[in-house]
Amino acid sequence: IELGTFNDFAQKISRHKIYSASERLLQKTLKERLKFIGQAEKRVKLAIQLKDWTLQTLALSVLAIENQRLYSDIRSLPTPRRLNGQDRVKYQQLLASQSLPYQNRANELQNELNRRWQRSQSLDSLQSDYMNSMPEMRSVLKVEISALIRTAPSSTQERLNRLLSTPYMRPSQKEMLTARRALRDDPFDIEKAEHLKQLAARSGEMPMVAYLDERIVQLKKGASL
Predict the structure, then answer these.
(1) How far, in Å, CA of 10 to CA of 115, rounded?
(2) I want to staple 171 with a disulfide (CB 3.0 to 4.6 A). Which of 5, 13, 69, 175 is the partner?
(3) How far is 18 from 37, CA to CA, in rounded Å?
(4) Angle between the 190-203 and 206-224 helix axes, to the nearest 10 degrees?
(5) What's phi and psi for 213, nearest 5 deg?
(6) 130: which residues sit within 8 A by CB, 6+ positions away?
């Protein structure tokens, strides 16, 4: 699933409403919402299979929001006028019991999202990719980061906004030469190889990036022996 396709789906489900003007219309629109929820669940599973952290996070966020919204929508359904006294109480109790699983699911999803935001490794990787990418790739990553900002906690929003405001700076020839010499003088140093790879990526020297990727893999294999 592409981010653009996912955003289209997220907008569609967020605009869906449950109408209670008649029992028939209520059942129809409620069935539509449940179908949307099922599709959102499938998108979470697919994003997990693809091992795409950004899509996983966005899909989990949409699913959490929509489960909470469905809970609220069911709880706020008007009581039929024909019901009186104890029947009205029983109807409200029925709505509460039918809506509770969606609130529980929303809480479960929100807890998972909180854990994901607290683990900084994926964010660190995203930040590194953005900082060490060419302008063309930056524009792609900017779309992803902008989408994440809309769902992230306030502290993470600040971090991501600062990241997007960081200007692109192409490495100078002196920086490249210094990094090459450092690796030449210490060819088994993984950090120096990583540093040169980052500079090469920002310079758009993709053959060098590919070479250094393979070299770093081999260095790590040697370090683990």
Answers:
(1) 22
(2) 175
(3) 13
(4) 160
(5) -55, -50
(6) 138, 141, 142, 145, 163, 166
Distance from C-alpha of 62 to C-alpha of 57, rounded to nearest angstrom: 9
* Alpha-helix residue ranges (DSSP H) falling in the chain: 3-15, 23-50, 53-75, 86-118, 121-131, 135-149, 154-164, 173-185, 190-203, 206-224
CA distance 98 to 30: 12
Cα dihedral 14/18/24/28 (nearest 10): 20
pLDDT in tens, the chain (225 residues): 588 889 999 999 999 999 998 889 999 999 999 999 999 999 999 999 999 899 999 999 999 999 999 999 999 988 888 888 888 889 889 999 999 999 999 999 999 999 999 887 888 889 888 988 888 888 889 999 999 999 999 989 999 999 999 888 888 889 889 999 999 999 999 999 988 888 888 887 888 888 998 999 988 887 654
Tokens of 208: 């060098």
Please name which of 71, 73, 162, 64 lies closest in space to residue 111, comparing C-alpha atoms.
64
pTM: 0.76
